[in-house]
From TrEMBL:
It comes from Falsiroseomonas tokyonensis. Pfam families: adh_short_C2. This is SDR family NAD(P)-dependent oxidoreductase. Keywords: Oxidoreductase. Signal peptide: none annotated.
């Protein structure tokens, strides 16, 4: 009970990114055996070596059903079927709406929404077949409920993912599968460090009531709450972690 994940198997998609690496370490630290899904498994080889025998890497292209099925088969053969999914894979295309071409739109929708749907559906089916319930955590964003210029496709995809989370929660509750969304605000990573050192980046930080960026460590408690039995009566929830940014009208 509580926050322990001992005996559980967790799949993390997008495991090569900053969020995915952190999520994998946290789930492993709580006792789970962790399956790291990445388009190129070599990009998470060092993390697998760090975590040891309770971790494995699988090639996973979230937009392709055959790749998802193969990854789940590999996971089941070694650890058993996942009882936890952290649906984390995602991309963004940044450009003004008037210049946001259909190729960018389709690419973001394919990964952020279609990919999340396909992985969640495949894992949920395996959970139903196993008859042991489970927890699905869809990694959304505060941009699923508010907007900033330049990320039309990303915001639309994350809004869709939040609504998909609620739909799944209603339909899967009878199978003892909980589905929630984690909605981070602006989190400092190696990818965005340069922007937040600029004048525009610093101005954005000043609009966050806590006057700081989040860190991946700020996502630790919320992730464990949603993944573990500590959140046993939570489903269909959107857990926002943004320092108050989404409630600030300034």
């Amino acid at each position: 009970m509580g926050f322990s994940l001992a005996g559980r198997v967790a799949l993390v998609t997008g495991a090569s990114g900053a969020f995915g690496r952190h999520f994998a370490r946290i789930l492993h630290g709580a006792g789970a055996r962790v399956v790291l899904g990445a388009r190129r498994p070599d990009t998470v080889a060092a993390l697998v070596a760090e975590l040891g025998e309770a971790a494995m890497a699988v090639a996973l292209e979230v937009t392709e059903e055959a790749s998802i099925a193969a990854a789940l088969d590999q996971a089941a053969a070694r650890f058993g079927p996942p009882g936890i999914l952290v649906n984390n894979a995602g991309i963004a295309a940044t450009r003004p709406f008037l210049d946001h071409d259909v190729a960018d739109w389709d690419r973001v929708m394919q990964v952020d929404l279609r990919g999340a749907f396909l992985v969640a559906q495949a894992v949920a089916r395996s959970m139903v077949a196993a008859g042991q319930g489970g927890s699905i955590v869809n990694v959304a964003s505060i941009l699923g409920s508010r907007v900033i210029p330049g990320v039309a496709g990303y915001s639309a995809a994350k809004a869709g993912l939040i609504q998909l989370t609620r739909q799944m929660a209603v339909e899967l509750a009878r199978h003892r599968i909980r589905v929630n969304a984690l909605a981070p605000g602006y989190i400092a990573t190696e990818i965005n460090a340069g922007f937040f050192e600029t004048e525009a980046g610093q101005a954005l930080v000043k609009r966050i009531p806590q006057r700081r960026l989040g860190t991946v460590e700020d996502l630790t408690g919320p992730l464990l709450l949603l993944a573990s039995e500590a959140g046993a009566h939570m489903t269909g929830s959107v857990l926002t972690v943004d320092g108050g940014h989404s409630i600030n009208s300034l």
